[in-house]
Amino acid sequence: MSLVAKDNGSPSFTAAVALRITVTDINDNCPTFSPDSHLNVTISGDSPKNTVVAQVKAIDPDLGTNSAITYKFSSKVSERARMLFSLDSLTGSVFLTQDLQSDRFEELVLKVLASGPYCSPADTQVTVSVFPRAKEEPTIKIGFIARHENQTLLLAENEPPTLLAVLELEGNTGLEYLSLNIEGEVPFTLSHQKDKYLLSNSRSLDHEERSEYHIFVTVQRSDQGSVITISSRVIRVVVVDVNDNPPFFPVSLYELEVEENNQPGELLQVTASDADSEDNSRLTYTLGQHTDRIFNIDQITGQLYVAVSLDREKQSTHTIRVTAQDSGAPALETTITVYIRVVDRNDNAPLFVMPHFIFFVPENAPVLSPVGHIGVTDADEGENGNIVMYVANSSGPFAIPNSKKTLHTISSIDREMQDRFEFWVIASDNGTPIRLTSSVRVTVYIEDINDNQPKIILPVSNLTCLTVSPDTTAGTTVTRVYAVDQDTGLNSELTYTVINQSKPFTVDSKTGNITLAQRLQEPDMRMHNLFIVVSDRGKPSPLHTAVWVNLYVNDSLDACHLDCEPVEPPWPSPTTAESIGCPANPESINTPNQIHVILFVGLGMMVVSISLFVGTIILHRRKKRSQREKNKNENEVPLKLLDKYYSDE
């Protein structure tokens, strides 16, 4: 049978579970006798004590104790009948309590009651006709062939038809009309051969159907068309049980649920029955060979125990094989299955796959850009293992939308403002009765993109002019171009390139130093305008800044000053391009009276330039030092990252 649940959705979904219904017996039936159960029997007046004269049998279709039947005589049975006969309360056998010595005919009526638990008794009737004892009548002599004991035949069940005994008449006076017959319907036959009778079973017998038979053999005589019984004898046959019934379980599969973290103790009582008797029905319960030591069973009662506390996360189901074995030879056994499902409890907090997550995201990434997946698991099931995640005390640019496991940006990020973020992520399950949480540290490094042009510190403007003495030795660094880039890595590595004709000066592409390449000649006594482009190495496209460096070769120490900026050539362009110079102020050239003024002005500009240069370096290094102090309490990152993010270069 199946139980089906169906929702009203579109499309609808269904779920089904198998139902097993075991009908437990209740005492709803009482013992009954069949309508033709009334018996009429005859016995001889000289029948010996303990002679079984009849057997009654009532039926109760219930099981176990509900089908127990007790037999007794009705209170209406006469005192004479009670004195002569007794009734076995369990088997329903009616037998003589004394030796009969009756010389007259009498008829005794025995009303038998069959009672069951909480039932009104059923009744039947046995009419016993006692014939006068015959004087020197023939008697029955029994020669046992089959196994016997104390004048009782012992016949194993399931035996095919077998010769059990040979019966003879003793004391026969030669009257040929005497014969032996079996009264009633029993699975035995008498076959007449000459002056002997062969007693056999007509079919194989079943101990579980009936364990004992009483064969009433009578000596009968025909007298003028009527048959008269002149003597009888009862042969008792016990059907010996053989172990032909294996143990029986009412169900082949037991299913139960046990909550994990349970206390060791009783789980389930399994009970089998065996239709055989004595040792053949004595059962022993054992667990299968491959069953672990988590469970054990009482070998006598079948009580199943759990020996330890169960952990669903280690093993969610257990399948146990229980065997019931009888004590017969050979022994028979039956095995059933016990299926145990361990019910989950919320005893596992979310577990992050790493103790510290490190991610990289480029600056200026679009809002809601994915940063990285934060791996987390929960060994519980259902709502106990359903995880929600969020950033703890977050005022930063990161969040976990919809409580999923992917970290996203929620605002634009500028690496030059902050190049690293450190925060905690909380994971919580939806378990009951309480929710369990875990946290993990997350570090996000902001990767630089080339979004800052080089910034030229020296010279301070395109109008700056420096006087170079004609006596300057070749190889002397006369000045330098100094620039900085707020980006990092290749994005901040600068290259200095002179665009126009620079002879007799050269520019170092890495340092920006401007050096006199050769001895100055007469043609070099003039203004030299060097158009220098400062480029970073950013990808995919480098950024540039340009500046004019104005060098005035003059044998005086007069200060140099430009009234207008040189005209910028198109760039990038071949290095052969000629610059279009801007004439120096005539008042500042070759005026003897102004030599000292120009000298002081030039020295002042140089001092200002050097001060700006040194100040810029100091501020830059203070910024880096402050950033290092801020991150002292953070965990160490790989050496390559330290080199990348904290280099002073």
Automatic annotation (TrEMBL):
<dbReference type="Pfam" id="PF00028">
    <property type="entry name" value="Cadherin"/>
</dbReference>
<feature type="domain" description="Cadherin">
    <location>
        <begin position="460"/>
        <end position="568"/>
    </location>
</feature>
<dbReference type="GO" id="GO:0007156">
    <property type="term" value="P:homophilic cell adhesion via plasma membrane adhesion molecules"/>
</dbReference>
<keyword id="KW-0677">Repeat</keyword>
<keyword id="KW-0325">Glycoprotein</keyword>
<feature type="domain" description="Cadherin">
    <location>
        <begin position="35"/>
        <end position="249"/>
    </location>
</feature>
<dbReference type="InterPro" id="IPR050174">
    <property type="entry name" value="Protocadherin/Cadherin-CA"/>
</dbReference>
<keyword id="KW-0472">Membrane</keyword>
<dbReference type="GO" id="GO:0005509">
    <property type="term" value="F:calcium ion binding"/>
</dbReference>
<dbReference type="InterPro" id="IPR002126">
    <property type="entry name" value="Cadherin-like_dom"/>
</dbReference>
<feature type="domain" description="Cadherin">
    <location>
        <begin position="250"/>
        <end position="352"/>
    </location>
</feature>
<dbReference type="GO" id="GO:0009653">
    <property type="term" value="P:anatomical structure morphogenesis"/>
</dbReference>
<protein>
    <recommendedName>
        <fullName>Cadherin domain-containing protein</fullName>
    </recommendedName>
</protein>
<keyword id="KW-0106">Calcium</keyword>
<keyword id="KW-0732">Signal</keyword>
<keyword id="KW-1133">Transmembrane helix</keyword>
<keyword id="KW-0130">Cell adhesion</keyword>
<keyword id="KW-0812">Transmembrane</keyword>
<feature type="domain" description="Cadherin">
    <location>
        <begin position="1"/>
        <end position="33"/>
    </location>
</feature>
<dbReference type="InterPro" id="IPR020894">
    <property type="entry name" value="Cadherin_CS"/>
</dbReference>
<dbReference type="GO" id="GO:0005886">
    <property type="term" value="C:plasma membrane"/>
</dbReference>
<feature type="domain" description="Cadherin">
    <location>
        <begin position="353"/>
        <end position="456"/>
    </location>
</feature>
<feature type="transmembrane region" description="Helical">
    <location>
        <begin position="595"/>
        <end position="619"/>
    </location>
</feature>
<dbReference type="InterPro" id="IPR015919">
    <property type="entry name" value="Cadherin-like_sf"/>
</dbReference>
